[in-house]
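BUG: 3D viewer hangs when loading the predicted structure for this chain

Environment: internal workstation, default settings.
Expected: structure renders.
Actual: progress bar stalls at 90%.

Input used:
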Amino acid sequence: MTTPDLLHLLRDCYTHNRNIVDAGLITSATLTPDPDAPGAHSPSIPGVPIRHLARITLRAPTSDDAANAQLLAQIENRLLGLPSISRVELTLLPALFPIL
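Structure tokens produced before the viewer hung:
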């Protein structure tokens, strides 16, 4: 799993009929090995893949708290469904146009 793979996965998350990557909402997305994941201290254990921590910072698409919470849940559910990602840390920046 690489950062471009992570961005590709985020294209499955939508707001206002556009995916969040093409809408320009992602300001940063990084993957790091998760030191707390099973097998992290012994990556040579057969059958135990290295798991990653995904850190994503994005701009809120709207000032509607319920819609933003739904988007964050959508992102988290999409990424945690993968065996290579163990945790997701999301940071939501304020909307550029809060009246939308």
